[in-house]
Amino acid sequence: MNENLYSLFESRFPADRGRPLLLLEDGRAVTYGEAEARCAQYAGLLAGLGLAPGDRVAVQVEKSPEALLLYLACLRAGLVYLPLNSAYQEGEVGYFLENAEPGAVVAQPRSMPWLAPLAARLGIRHLFTLDERGEGSLVDAARGGPVRFTTVGRAGGDLAAILYTSGTTGRSKGAMITHRNLASNATVLHAYWGFRPDDVLVHMLPLFHVHGLFVACHCVLMNGTAMRFHAKFDAGRALEDFRRSSVFMGVPTFYTRLLAEPGLTREACAAMRLFVSGSAPLLAETHADFAARTGHRILERYGMTETGMLTSNPLAGERRPGTVGFPLPGTSVRVVDDEGRACTAGDIGHIQVKGDNVLPGYWRMPERNKEEFTPDGFFRTGDVGFFSADGYLSIVGRSKDLIITGGYNVYPKEVELAIDELPGVAESAVVGVPHPDFGEAVTAVVVARPGAPAPTEAGVIAALKSRLANFKVPKRVFVVKELPRNTMGKVQKNVLRERYSAPGD
Ligand code: MLC
Ligand code: AMP
């Protein structure tokens, strides 16, 4: 049996291929028929380059309909899709390309001055451009190609995508995601959230991470219906769309920004049936304010790049604020103590998971696979939480040193390593402090090197901007004489978090 995820989607496409898949900001639409044809052309182009099933295609582009079709084309051709956040800088991309050894790279035209020499150095023969308007050498090369393509047969365990996630050591790991991982999660979410034949989803998330690419797009593709497709989040546009749509998915920052709009009313959301939040904790206060203003109780769910979606508040029963709901069908979620013994309800412990949605391992990192999985095959999420007596999971913290800012993960170690390389810096510590818009804000505390000119806040921020994706760059930098340490010599990040969370800092 062909377990290619694309074939599953295709089986759900509407019989009338003239129906829209994408409704664009400028009023145009991309129908299912057009999507199939253009996707076939990209698949044909990539296969024609000599790329074989299992080869990686790295893609660092802004969001556009073509970017989505390119993803579907990779699935269809049996190639492994490797999406990269468009904010990543040269050094970050260099590591991913060196590690993943893609057969082809598709990137923004503005990246070519540094990307072309990098690709040449790494022996990557095929390099294409694709810009935010959906134009570039990729589109030119595919134009006029056959509009049919026979989807390549894949087994469920074959790779569909690799998504890099940073690690506590500062080195990124490629999460290997299989066709089965994605198909099982898509099938479960589509059913659990009760998708209906007339649903229209408002899509404002980026396309290079799990939430926007897999969770949102897969639900729509499984439903064979349309999404209103926007380049990025815009609260005003979202409100306009809510009047003629039914489902919205976002990170908590989307919801706090919507709450700042006077136009967010019960009447503006009357056509909507479901608001989903995830990727970062949704404050119970945001949940309550949103319900008071719109009459809608946001449905919060919990997931990870490595595992897809794991738990969800129910569509029908009580959506309990501050919790992430129940394990999804087919996913085992357990909470264990430091010794690996099951915790009882109410007791806080480590969250571990198992299921068809969980990755088989990290790309070329056998040692990490041993550490991240338990001997009985559960994946260690690094999240800490507890189950209530009636089965709702709450996340109370993380055992991994991680900051989530506006739904993006930032590992302090990576930022600290970049800061420590700057002239005049002896050492640094990076923490997350509460932020009204982004939930948490990356904050750096820097110790100057004796005898060297002291670094300045503006200087550190400017230097980091060319080295790190913008969301990793600290919003504030404090230069201090020394870092607080415990008796073991370990930096006390909790002390720093408290110190720099104070209003006025
Ligand atoms: C942008 N900036 C951020 C940021 N996004 N800083 C911190 N955190 C972020 N998330 C930078 C900008 O570059 C800019 O810097 C400054 O902050 C202000 O930018 P902005 O104009 O306010 O940002 P905007 O473009 O509006 O983007 C904010 C956002 C976006 C929240 C809309 O970040 C976003 O779409 N986030 C969603 C992330 C997501 O999809 N996560 C899912 C991961 S999957 P400067 O210096 O230029 O001023 C996952 C699994 C799961 O986690 O469970 O879903
Ligand atoms: P990522 O690696 O980007 O996939 O991020 C996954 C992490 O995001 C999880 O391990 C959690 O720490 C966090 N996360 C996702 N959804 C939620 C949520 N609803 N509440 C709290 N944390 C969440």
How would you describe this structure to a colleague?
This protein is 30% helix and 26% strand. With 505 residues, it is of the alpha/beta class. It folds into 3 domains: 5-177, Rossmann fold, CATH 3.40.50.12780; 233-398, Rossmann fold; 402-500, GMP Synthetase, Chain A, domain 3, CATH 3.30.300. A 9-stranded mixed beta sheet has the order 2-1-10-9-11-12-13-14-15, with helices on both faces. It has a 4-stranded parallel beta sheet with strand order 4-3-5-6, sandwiched between helices. Helix 3 (65-76) links the parallel strand 3 and strand 4 (80-83). The longest helix is centred in the N-terminal third of the chain and has 17 residues, at 32-48. The chain binds malonyl-coenzyme A and adenosine monophosphate.
Tally of discrete structural domains? 3
> Looking across the biggest beta sheet, what order are the strands in?
2-1-10-9-11-12-13-14-15
How many E-type strands? 25
Distance between the termini: 60 Å
Short account of what is shown:
This protein is an alpha/beta fold.
Name a few traits of the molecule.
505 residues, alpha/beta, Rossmann fold, GMP Synthetase, Chain A, domain 3, four-stranded parallel beta sheet, 15 helices, 25 strands, globular, binds malonyl-coenzyme A, binds adenosine monophosphate
